[in-house]
Design goal:
By secondary structure, this protein is mainly alpha-helical. The protein has eleven helices and no strands. The chain is globular and about 45 Å long. The N and C termini lie far apart (about 35 Å).
Length: about 220
């Protein structure tokens, strides 16, 4: 397969529609609504998510990128992510999404031994680890990767909002741009980390509880 220019590679990772399957998860929106969240509070939910769960994902992806470039073991990155993701339902959702990214990664980076090995694992690594390794192979920088993770997560959430609580899409565009701008100052710090122990450790206990309840629900549109 022909090499992918870094800009196009970045766009590929930021596209939740195909073929990673990000469209099948709501980034915590459906669990929150089923848990009783007032739809009017969705902006507050996403503002909290981008400073907690999403920041952990971005830091994990950057750490995986750094470890892969250094030829180091990625197991510590995965363990650090697990320690910062206490909800089993959220861990399962991330690994499910990782399967899609692994399919893409092994196509665009067929010579990457880590991706090939991960593709054979019965339980895949989390999505941010796969994103980090792919970013390494595709020559995507750490700062760009951190922003891709944030943008992709917010886009998945707002796309889910349009299915669950329809509203003017332009309002959601404004929300995404606003939240990206609010978190951007934190991403330069995230982009500089190399040690898995430095991955942000912000948590969202209520969202985690909603995720666990959602995993047991039989009436749901999204996986998470």
């Amino acid at each position: 397969m022909a090499s992918v220019p870094p800009l196009f590679a970045t766009l590929l990772l930021a596209d939740a529609r195909l073929p990673s399957g990000g469209h099948a998860q709501s980034a915590g929106v459906e669990p929150a609504l089923l848990g009783g969240l007032d739809p009017a509070d969705l902006p507050a939910l996403l503002r909290a998510r981008v400073r907690t769960t999403t920041l952990v994902e971005a830091g994990t992806a950057v750490a995986a990128l750094a470890q892969h470039r250094a030829g180091a073991d990625l197991a510590p990155v995965e363990r650090a992510w697990e320690a910062r993701t206490p909800s089993a339902a959220q861990r399962d959702a991330s690994r499910l999404l990782a399967r899609g990214y692994l399919r893409v990664g092994t196509q665009v980076l067929p010579d990457d031994a880590v991706l090939a090995a991960w593709g054979q694992r019965p339980v895949p690594p989390p999505r941010p680890c796969v994103l980090g390794v792919m970013a390494s192979g595709l020559a995507i920088g750490a700062a760009e990767l951190a922003r891709v993770v944030v943008y992709e997560d917010l886009q998945a959430a707002t796309a889910a909002v349009l299915k669950l609580e329809p509203r003017d899409p332009l309002d959601l565009v404004s929300l995404v741009t606003s939240l990206c701008a609010e978190i951007d100052d934190h991403l330069d710090e995230v982009a500089s980390l190399t040690d898995p122990s430095d991955i942000p450790a912000a948590s969202a206990p209520q969202s985690e509880a909603w995720a666990e309840a959602h995993a047991r629900s039989r009436r749901r549109l999204f996986r998470a």
